[in-house]
Amino acid sequence: MWLTVAMLGLAFGPPALAEPSPTGPARRSHPRPRAVLLAHKAGVNAIAFAPDGKTLASGGADGSIILWDVAAREPLAAVLPGPKQGVSSVAFSPDGTTLASGGGDGTVVTWDLARREPLGSPLAGHAGGVTSVAFSPDGRTLASASDDRTVILWDLAARRPEGPPLAGHRDWIASVAFAPDGKTLASASADRTVILWDVATRRPLGSPLSGHADWVVGVAFAPDGKTLASASADRTVILWDVAAHRPVGPPLAGHQNWVSSVAFSPDGKTLASGSADRTLLLWDVATHQALTSRLFGAHRRGVTSVVWSPDGETLASGGDDKRIIFWDFGREAPSR
What we know:
globular
């Protein structure tokens, strides 16, 4: 059978519970691994939840895209074919009807999820592999980042670039993210900087954000758009004040290898980080303190991607070990 869904029975010991809320059950302060999904034949490069939280998309180094039924923990349909060079990034449109995927062949494919078919020909414009894709909040624009050091903003209705590529980085670009209001785009690069772009004028907003000592490989905006998190090969995460263009406090340090991915919880209070050290960390955004010890033992190789479900009850992580793991943040009744 090509698919294995294994329930994890790992010896983490009993989870620590937060103090009960006076208005309802308590949220776990130490999440538990709920399930691991295995279907990719090589490492999982990227994962994304659909806006309704019912579907998870994963892109693999094996060149495949898998759509998962989150409740059943099984693929919804046949594997969507990607480039043989691997699928590096996946993203759902805000309305959940379209999936975008970027690959090592330098193209972006947009998929009609109802028909499981590509929407027209691939979007081709980069001179190197596509490393990251992101939809604007209104769903009209798609940003793609590339090894060629540029970002392209695509008009999805016209299926062409909105203008010349955004060029400002001195090395390959690893990640892009739109601010919640859609007015700003962040790009993270191996040149150790993050550039904030004015989407309307297509120009940088001030100087690049500099503070990391190695490649910057992931960026994510907080839900209110005021804070940006950047992940780096220097093993740290920096929280940036977007308006002031400066770090908010010292870097978050706790990982023992490069930090590959960061994601804010839907309420903006918690930041999750995944690392090549095979672990995840959860951070209190207000205090900058780690909320738990490192979550380990579930991934056997580096963590490549972390993403929260829209309801904040589940954190999903993908790894070089071909695994996708669901971490349970569900609420429990207080112990009696």
